[in-house]
């Protein structure tokens, strides 16, 4: 899903434009950095906030260890270590999810430049393309394979929209093509 908040934790300072991709209500945010610059921000759809994930973990922890304690008091003490291992795996998976919350992409069209900034697990990579030569490429997935969306210029290609559904990718591709054509 496209991020409804600012990228890199910043509050967005600009106009919003909604694009309905197959009834999912995708929101695209354009942040105007300069008079002519436009930024499209794409991020993960996170259903729980950090505090929501904490409450989820604590509630599951209480229930799981409570059930394990009842079984241990009834003589099935071997349930407790399994419950602890289960909670350790849940905690580890939530920590990995926590590291990925800032993942996303910012695609800035500023004058004759197109800048794609990708953040994955706290690391940001930046790719710059010439606006005149940049092309948006959409590949369709066959069967269960997902399609792809990428920006290409001069033999370099950067995949974007990893977090989007196929319908959302098409909507983003249409918007990028429209923006790249606005010279």
Distinctive features:
183 residues, alpha+beta, PH-domain like, 6-stranded antiparallel beta sheet, 3-stranded antiparallel beta sheet, 3 helices, 9 strands, 33% helix, elongated, disordered N terminus
Structural class: alpha+beta
**CATH architecture identity of the largest domain:** Roll
Q: In DSSP terms, counting alpha (H) and pi (I) runs of 4 or more, how many helices?
A: 3
Return residue spans where pLDDT drops below 50 for at least 5 consecutive residues. 1-35
Measure the end-to-end span: 28 Å
* CATH fold topology of the largest domain: PH-domain like
What's the arrangement of strands in the largest beta sheet? 1-2-3-4-5-6
For the sheet with most strands, the description reads: 6 strands, antiparallel
Total E-strand runs: 9
User: What's the average pLDDT?
Assistant: 77
- In total, the number of domains comes to 2
Spell out the blueprint of helices and strands.
Elements: E1 16-19, E2 26-31, E3 38-43, H1 50-73, H2 79-99, E4 104-110, E5 113-120, E6 123-130, E7 135-139, E8 148-153, E9 156-160, H3 166-181
Antiparallel strand pairs: 1-2, 2-3, 3-4, 4-5, 5-6, 7-8, 8-9
Describe this structure in words.
The longest helix is centred in the middle third of the chain and has 24 residues, at 50-73. The chain contains 3 helices and 9 strands, in the order E-E-E-H-H-E-E-E-E-E-E-H. It is an alpha+beta fold and 183 residues long. The radius of gyration is 22 Å and the shape is elongated. Residues 1-35 have low confidence and may be disordered. A 6-stranded antiparallel β-sheet has the order 1-2-3-4-5-6, with helices on one face. Strand 8 (148-153) and strand 9 (156-160) form a beta hairpin. Helix 1 packs antiparallel against helix 2 (79-99). The chain folds into 2 domains: 7-45 and 103-181, PH-domain like (Roll); 50-99.
């Amino acid at each position: 899903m496209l991020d409804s908040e600012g990228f890199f934790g910043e509050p967005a300072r600009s106009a919003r434009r909604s694009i309905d991709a197959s009834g999912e209500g995708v929101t695209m945010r354009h942040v105007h950095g300069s008079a002519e610059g436009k930024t499209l921000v794409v991020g993960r759809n996170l259903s729980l906030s950090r505090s929501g994930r904490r409450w989820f973990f604590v509630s599951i922890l209480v229930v799981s260890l409570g059930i394990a304690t009842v079984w241990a008091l009834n003589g099935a003490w071997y349930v407790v270590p399994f419950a602890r291992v289960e909670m350790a795996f849940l905690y580890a998976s939530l920590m990995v999810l926590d590291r990925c919350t800032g993942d996303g992409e910012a695609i800035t069209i500023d004058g004759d430049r197109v800048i794609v900034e990708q953040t994955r697990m706290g690391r940001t990579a930046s790719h710059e393309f010439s606006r005149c030569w940049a092309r948006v490429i959409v590949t369709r997935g066959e069967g269960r394979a997902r399609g792809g969306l990428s920006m290409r210029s001069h033999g370099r290609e950067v995949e974007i929209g990893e977090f989007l559904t196929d319908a959302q990718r098409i909507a983003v591709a249409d918007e990028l093509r429209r923006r790249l054509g606005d010279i």
